[in-house]
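Tokens help. Consider this.
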Amino acid sequence: MYFFSLRLLKRDVPALVAGVFLLVSGVVAQQSAAAQAPVRVALIESLSGPFANTGEAVFRNLVWAAERVNARGGIKLPGGNRPLVFERYDSKGQNEEALSALRSAIDDGITLVAQGNSSSTAAVLIDAINKHNEREPSKRVLFLNYSAVDPVLTNEKCSYWHFRFDAHADMRVAALMEALKDDKALKSIYLIGQDYSFGQAVLRESRRQLGVQRPDVQIVGDELHPLGRVKDFIPYAAKIKASGAQAVLTGNWGNDLTLLVKAAREVGYEGSFYTFYGNALGVPAAIGDAGVGKVIAVADWFPNSAGAPSEAFYKSFRQRFPKPQDDYVHMRMQLMVEALAQSIEKAGATESGAVAAQLEKTSVLFASHKGAMRSTDHQFQQPLLVAVMDKQGAPGVKFDVEGSGYGFRVIKTIDAARSEQPHSCKMIRP
């Protein structure tokens, strides 16, 4: 019996060796796969509904930034380089849907979250993430904010787990005032915005700063309208025109801005527009020649920003996304992704606490644009630019926007030290 067993064993040695080889190979393959498993970031954004175009535009920016990271080998970690990927979760422009998307992302094992195109959504996500991180300290979530600019998010509602890479509303208003205060002919202005936390913050700060910097300018209109629900802005445009306002100041974004300027053109309004986002998503084409010299926008960067690195950056984006309607590129989103990759590499891990500890002291330089995270409130500090709409080919307007034939010429550069604002954050650290 013993001899028979040996004989069987001898006969099956090749099969046994092959089995061991397959087992070892499988373990190695699993380890290799784990080493190459992507660093996943959940994009929670409006990917359907009235603001779907803004969500898709953000997704293109983030995909492009991730492709750049992956082209250089991915994120370097002790177990091996790992690619960076952004996964889509549709909030449908609703806070409850955003919270549901957050839960789905966490259930899918994602602990890095990005969102920005609504300050009210950002606020509920901050609250939910804070509560989740208290309940599940082993699965803590980090929130990357690229566009939600209500100042409260880095003041009263500041959170260790939230990092904002866009200039908040007060910073943007202050930058616009740098241009507005030079317009000595301006004597009357109309304030209009979306009726939610961000729109309210823009109008509140605009009233305050006008009172300080241009008390001679009369506010002849001051109103809020429903967010994303107005289909016809003609009544609003008619009121603006009837008020005699020489200029409009608005924080509107997406279709709420495009439809507003279209309506203004249709009623024959000839005043200026001081905007947060008038340089994209159909606005230049909607207003046409009437906007030349009259549409002013503030941003962290413009395609016509000076310098060869900036020009190369923009050209490479247009090569990647050649359709005119896809021409929506933001430097801050690129800096955010670069800062995230840098922080994960310095932490040597993807765990949110370790990444946050590095992210709050990060400084990043890309395409000659530099910014640094302020650790006390997690508000990114960077230069801000103010630009005015002009025809492509005019001095300082090499590039147009969205194939419209109109671009933006930079007229003011506010360095990071001057654009910085005080804060009231009382950071609670884990």
